[in-house]
Amino acid sequence: MKLYETIAILIFSALAAAQPAESDRLRVEFLKMCDAACAELNTPERKASFYQDSYAVRALAVAHDLTGEQKYLEVCRRWSDRMIEYQNGMTPKGAYWMHYGRKPGETKGEWYVGDSSSIALGVLATAVRSPDSKQHQRYLNSVKSYAKLVIDNYVGPEGGITDGLWSKFDGQWWCSTGIFGSLAFLLYNETDDETYRKIGLGTVDWLNRLDFHNVGGPISFEERSPTVVMYILETYSVALPQLEPGSQRHAGAMAQLNKCLQWMSENQRGRVPSLPWDYNSHNKGAKFGGLPFHMYVNARYVADPAGLRAAADQELRYIASVLWKDGSPKISQLAVFAMMSYAEKLSPGTIYRKTKTPSQSEKGTQ
After folding, report:
1. Greatest CA span in the chain, whole angstroms?
2. Are 37 and 59 in contact (CB under 8 A)?
3. pLDDT per residue over 260-304, tens digit each?
4. Nearest to 302 by CA among 353, 264, 356, 336
5. Whole-structure pTM value
6. CATH number assigned to the domain with residue range 23-360, chosen from the 4 options 1.50.10.20, 3.40.1000.20, 1.10.10.60, 3.40.50.2000
7. Cα 207 vs. chain centroid, distance in angstroms?
8. Which of 132, 145, 163, 250 could form a disulfide with 173 if both were Cys (CB 3.0 to 4.6 A apart)?
9. Counting beta carbons within 10 angstroms of the beta carbon of residue 116, is it exposed (0 to 12), middle (13 to 18) or buried (19 or more)?
10. Vertex 236 angle, CA 230 and 238, to 5°
11. What dihedral do alpha carbons 207, 212, 214, 218 form, nearest 10°?
């Protein structure tokens, strides 16, 4: 055997041996963050917006799937029960309280579709994992009530979604469109109701026409770049499996996905360490925590799936270095979005799972 062949085999063996170690590390870190979220969520001391907590809830739902431990699902249930309790007192009917803005019992004040759609995604994640049929239906009905409010009042003429009761802007908006589009497709997957699919396809069409470098409205792309990329991908990551390859709609979605991936390659500090992004910044950097999630989800659609997954791994390692710099992290905005990325890495596809049928539950399939 030639020397270079021996060296190549040794390198390959070393890399193969290192993979389980990294997987074990990620699992340990993920579950530590989940345990911290269990301790922090649903407490009077926690002041974070509920949209932020919703991403932790979705990650906790995956922790339940991974481990079978009921404590993770119990926290999701308690959180979702609170969301429904607040929802029952909200005007307009079906709205979620965001932990800021318009409160239950009030008829004035700001209320946003974008943040509320994130809350709905957390309640839906709880619904699909609830083994009790009445409990499942209660959570699902909450999400459907919210979706009806949006569909009846906030769908724009070009298919985009306006951001609810926002005094600064009443046009179709990238944030509300991206997140509600994701919810619409997931509701279609869960219920087979074509109404949701139609709305979801409308959000794809609107996003396909969007120049996300020039989003319009009161917040520019430069102000919230990682946030814009994170949220428009919310729709594409769910929609792409439902778009016909070769269609104009599919081509437009792939073009936008590739533009987003190109922006990531030029701006993620895991790949370009010299960049000045602050990943702990609420508006400027925290959403970077969720971008590996979308990279993992969409890797199967690109020309080099292994390369994109490797880039996502590289970025997640950098995010972990930020999160764990001072020991166990607080459940910050960066942490909750990173939990989504950890979850997708450790259990691919589970974030978007549907309710299991009895036959699926017996087989352990998703």
Report:
1. 79
2. yes
3. 999 999 999 999 999 999 999 987 899 999 999 999 999 999 999
4. 264
5. 0.92
6. 1.50.10.20
7. 17
8. 163
9. buried
10. 105
11. 80
